[in-house]
Amino acid sequence: MLENYMGILMLNEREDNIKSLTKSRPIAAIPIGGRYRIIDFVLSNMVNSGIHNVGLFTNTKSRSLVDHLGSGKPWDLDRKLNGLYVFNLTSERSELRDIDVLNDNMEYIYKSKQEYVIISSSYMLCNMDYNEAAIYHEQSGSDVTVLYKKTNSGKSDYLSCSTLYINEENKILSVGKNIGSSDKINISMEMFIMKKSTLIDIVKKSKETGYHNSIKAVIYEHILKLNVNAFEFKGYIKRIDSLKNYYTASMDMLNTKVTKELFFSNGLIYTKSKNAAPTKYFNGAKVNNALISNGCILKGKIENSIISRRVTIHEEVEIKNCIIFENCEIKKGCKLTNVIVDRNVIMCENTVLNGSVDFPVVIEKKVEPYQF
């Protein structure tokens, strides 16, 4: 177990292609799988691997994220020693700069008693055990170990991701960008393992030169100066950086094999629990291949869809390949196909919406319930 490791989550993921779901929340707080948030996966991975000191650096639109995390109790991080530390920044900068953020909170890093650190983003959806990667890092003598995934779908998935060119000894020779020219590529998971002292040196030197604004940029730019190795992750992974990827990952969860791997393979995925009555199925309701959360009232037809908590679906409704967020009401006669409905939406009677797999229709969230 990684008791000598601390975790740092940098929630500065680019939101250009998923803005319809991130106007009032960061990517980490987007609901997924009916009852989870995206951040639950990386946070559970760290806790299941034995990491109990996690620092989370987020931006100003993080009310829903902070509410979801609370004291960290669902992840056993409400501790007197170590635990979950949320740094909610008030910077007016349009982008969250890794180096500035860490430099401004260096006291937290200095006071942490762990010798090693794992830095990660939140939007790499997977279930992994960091222990094997940590053992490899320590035995290899690397300054930095980058976790990566071999993929055969580089032309369609992971566009604009960093690609790694690796030799037979797993040393990273160079870093590029996926422009969709090849299917077989090595994708960086944006997870880095290093000694805490190495992280401190990187931050100090970057501030002195004023040249870099992110940890990964420093590491990638100094591949030849630092001893940077790669560790392969062989399980299921999805990068949630676009609406299409979010929709595809959600639909993947309807596959039993993917669900078992994503939620159970290397430990459970934990989330904030909410007390609610079981879902009530009325006569005439038909449900086929769907994830249904608690507290719902179902009277219509649901196929290949994900229904979150406290959703009401009236009679004569047909929902296919859809994702319905919490507290929504789909009234009589609606027909929805390839649609994402964010929280607090009341769908008017006989509404018909048809999206596609590549371009699902999104009905955006409102603070109070409203009719569409």
UniProtKB/TrEMBL annotation:
UniProtKB keywords: Nucleotidyltransferase, Transferase
GO MF term set: glucose-1-phosphate adenylyltransferase activity
Chain ranges of the Nucleotidyl transferase domain: 20-151
Pfam families registered for this protein in UniProt: Hexapep_GlmU, NTP_transferase
Residue intervals of the Glucose-1-phosphate adenylyltransferase/Bifunctional protein GlmU-like C-terminal hexapeptide domain: 285-352
InterPro entries: ADP-Glc_PPase, GlgDAde_trans, GlmU/GlgC-like_hexapep, NTP_transferase_dom
EC number: 2.7.7.27
Family, similarity comment: Belongs to the bacterial/plant glucose-1-phosphate adenylyltransferase family.
Record NCBIfam families: glgD (TIGR02092)
Name the record gives this protein: Glucose-1-phosphate adenylyltransferase subunit GlgD
Organism: Clostridium frigoriphilum
Phylogenetic classification of the source organism: Bacteria, Bacillati, Bacillota, Clostridia, Eubacteriales
Encoding gene per record: glgD
